[in-house]
């Protein structure tokens, strides 16, 4: 059980917190790669998803992109892109690869969220004299917000996981702690587990942080909370979300 | 660029796609078919065993979560945590128990597929019309017979959709097992990458995608066969 006592010792060792291979540097790298890729993916997928969902076109495309994203292994795409001349071993290649994996969840969830907006609400808004862009801004987008945020959260968790895997190809990020500890000479289990704990904690913080942010951002839930506060009732409900394919 | 070099080499080395390090190389598939088949075999083993374990565990868990309210919150909470942990971390987390064996990879992959399956079965069971359940009770069916005869068939499409997602993502995730040397086709990708062996990286990657598509189509076929009443819809 030496590996167990080795974990706190690893965290206590100042050498693991300093320099290019220290936890702070690796964490900033991980965060930077993840945030840049997630931002890029949202920049591409949100407008496209909203537009496709609003017009109702390209539903099959949005679903197929989601399915394809699951079928292609990160390891495979990363390995290929890093070897292709012109991409090569640059951090641009990394961010491009992570972005490709973050686009599908954002795109499919945004599309589905927009499509699942109650047609009655859209018709009512049109009947009240709202223009197409007003319907989009004041009815469809607010009602689709929970699904859109759900997609962003899935993409964020995905990107954090993908960034960890990049360490297999000798890139930075928290995964580096694990790959450094696993070599042909055997495994430094304590160091690998310390890296594991850091990655898992980071991923869970992203998941729950964005879940919280999603609840805060949902205009419908916000209105309900305000109404509940006025009438003095408290209650909540949670449901299971299906993972779908088509 | 390197006419002279090529001239020198042509005397010593045969000119084929392996020597040129081409991405697409039939000669690689011919000469290394044993390695490819071995990796494919391990990949299939990882995927099939972990899916089987996932299904066997997910069904009772989902039924329990569907019937007992307290179990529901717990199940959803735990599965969310598991699904959030990146694969690289989960493989390492299991190392102290199972070591550098394929069992480590199987357990991690089974946990991921379990998560997808439990959620989808639960959504399927939740979606059963309460009136249908009442009708079954009115016809004198016991609670377990209602589950088997009424609820299970109605939840099947959602469960099968979950199984397809689980299968496809398990095929992709299994490659990460390469971190402990047990990644099936993933091993070929990482070793090919570190030795700049283009044909090996591309061939193993393509095999992964083909495997995922084959699993998806087989399960789609199984779903059609298992739910004949839905044929013609949609």
From TrEMBL, chain A:
<dbReference type="InterPro" id="IPR000515">
    <property type="entry name" value="MetI-like"/>
</dbReference>
<feature type="region of interest" description="Disordered">
    <location>
        <begin position="224"/>
        <end position="246"/>
    </location>
</feature>
<keyword id="KW-0813">Transport</keyword>
<dbReference type="GO" id="GO:0005886">
    <property type="term" value="C:plasma membrane"/>
</dbReference>
<feature type="transmembrane region" description="Helical">
    <location>
        <begin position="90"/>
        <end position="107"/>
    </location>
</feature>
<dbReference type="GO" id="GO:0055085">
    <property type="term" value="P:transmembrane transport"/>
</dbReference>
<keyword id="KW-1133">Transmembrane helix</keyword>
<keyword id="KW-0472">Membrane</keyword>
<keyword id="KW-0812">Transmembrane</keyword>
<feature type="transmembrane region" description="Helical">
    <location>
        <begin position="31"/>
        <end position="53"/>
    </location>
</feature>
<dbReference type="Pfam" id="PF00528">
    <property type="entry name" value="BPD_transp_1"/>
</dbReference>
<feature type="compositionally biased region" description="Gly residues">
    <location>
        <begin position="235"/>
        <end position="246"/>
    </location>
</feature>
<feature type="transmembrane region" description="Helical">
    <location>
        <begin position="190"/>
        <end position="214"/>
    </location>
</feature>
<dbReference type="InterPro" id="IPR035906">
    <property type="entry name" value="MetI-like_sf"/>
</dbReference>
<comment type="similarity">
    <text>Belongs to the binding-protein-dependent transport system permease family.</text>
</comment>
<protein>
    <submittedName>
        <fullName>ABC transporter permease</fullName>
    </submittedName>
</protein>
<dbReference type="GO" id="GO:0031460">
    <property type="term" value="P:glycine betaine transport"/>
</dbReference>
<feature type="transmembrane region" description="Helical">
    <location>
        <begin position="65"/>
        <end position="84"/>
    </location>
</feature>
<feature type="domain" description="ABC transmembrane type-1">
    <location>
        <begin position="27"/>
        <end position="210"/>
    </location>
</feature>
<feature type="transmembrane region" description="Helical">
    <location>
        <begin position="155"/>
        <end position="178"/>
    </location>
</feature>
<dbReference type="InterPro" id="IPR051204">
    <property type="entry name" value="ABC_transp_perm/SBD"/>
</dbReference>
């Amino acid at each position: 059980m030496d590996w167990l006592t080795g974990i706190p010792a690893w965290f206590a060792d100042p050498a693991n917190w300093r320099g290019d291979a220290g936890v702070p540097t690796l964490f900033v790298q991980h965060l930077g790669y993840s945030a840049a890729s997630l931002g890029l993916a949202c920049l591409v997928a949100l407008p496209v998803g909203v537009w496709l969902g609003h017009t109702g076109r390209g539903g099959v495309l949005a679903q197929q992109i989601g399915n394809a994203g699951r079928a292609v292994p990160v390891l495979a795409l990363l390995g290929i892109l890093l070897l292709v001349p012109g991409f090569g071993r640059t951090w641009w290649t990394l961010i491009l690869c992570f972005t490709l994996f973050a686009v599908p969840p954002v795109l499919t969830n945004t599309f589905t969220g927009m499509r699942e907006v109650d047609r009655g609400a859209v018709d009512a808004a049109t009947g009240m004299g709202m223009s197409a862009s007003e319907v989009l801004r004041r009815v469809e987008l607010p009602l689709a917000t929970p699904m859109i945020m759900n997609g962003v959260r899935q993409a964020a968790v995905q990107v954090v996981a993908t960034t960890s895997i990049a360490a297999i190809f000798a890139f930075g990020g928290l995964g580096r702690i694990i790959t450094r500890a696993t070599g042909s000479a055997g495994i430094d289990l304590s160091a690998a587990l310390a890296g594991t704990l850091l990655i898992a904690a980071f991923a869970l913080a992203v998941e729950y942080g964005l879940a919280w942010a999603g609840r805060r951002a949902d205009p419908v839930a916000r209105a309900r909370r305000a109404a509940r506060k006025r009438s003095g009732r408290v209650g909540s409900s949670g449901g299971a979300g299906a993972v779908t394919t088509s | 660029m390197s006419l002279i070099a090529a001239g020198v080499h042509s005397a010593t080395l045969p000119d084929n796609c392996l020597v040129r390090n081409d991405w697409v190389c039939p000669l690689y598939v011919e000469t290394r078919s044993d390695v490819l088949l071995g990796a494919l075999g391990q990949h299939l083993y990882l995927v099939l065993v972990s899916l089987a374990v996932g299904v066997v565990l997910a069904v009772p868990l989902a039924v329990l979560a569907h019937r007992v309210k307290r179990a529901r919150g717990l199940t959803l909470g735990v599965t969310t945590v598991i699904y959030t942990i990146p694969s690289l971390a989960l493989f390492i987390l299991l190392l102290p128990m199972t070591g550098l064996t394929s069992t480590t990879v199987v357990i991690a992959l089974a946990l991921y597929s379990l998560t997808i399956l439990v959620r989808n079965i639960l959504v399927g069971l939740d979606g059963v019309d309460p009136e249908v359940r009442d009708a079954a009770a009115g016809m004198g069916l016991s609670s377990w017979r209602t589950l088997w005869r009424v609820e299970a068939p109605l939840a099947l499409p959602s469960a099968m959709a979950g199984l397809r997602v689980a299968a496809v993502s398990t095929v992709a995730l299994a490659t990460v097992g390469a971190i402990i040397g047990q990644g099936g086709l993933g091993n070929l990708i990482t070793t090919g990458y570190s030795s700049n062996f283009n044909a090996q990286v591309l061939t193993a990657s393509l095999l992964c995608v083909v495997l995922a598509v084959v699993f998806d189509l087989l399960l789609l076929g199984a779903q059609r066969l298992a739910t004949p009443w839905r044929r013609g819809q949609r």
